[in-house]
Design brief:
With 123 residues, this protein is mainly alpha-helical. The chain has five helices and no strands. It has one domain (2-122). The protein has helices spanning 2-21, 23-31, 39-56, 66-87, 95-122.
Length: 123
Amino acid sequence: MNKVLIFAAVGEAATGLALLIVPSLVGRLLLGAELAGVSIPVARVAGIALIALGIACRPAGDANPGLPAMLLYGLLATLYLAWLGMSGEWVGSLLWPAVMLHAILTILLVRAWLNNQRSRGKT
């Protein structure tokens, strides 16, 4: 079972990385159509989520195996959405509130991760 989980996690993370780097190619290969316009940033956020999913599904001895994955997702989503907003090309009315929400959640996740690391060091 662990080998299947590892295979699936690596596959999802690799697909996520491809969506992040070359979303149009992935769209063409998977769906037979070019991704264009707003589908590019949406595909990249999906890629970030798939990378986090791959990390969350790795075999680990952590008490909270999803914590590093959610932390990575929150950080990358915050940075990418902020970059979209600063570039000015894709700015909807909820973009900056979404950036702020992801930033706050990322800060809270960093605190939880640090507390987890401290408590693991005490045992």
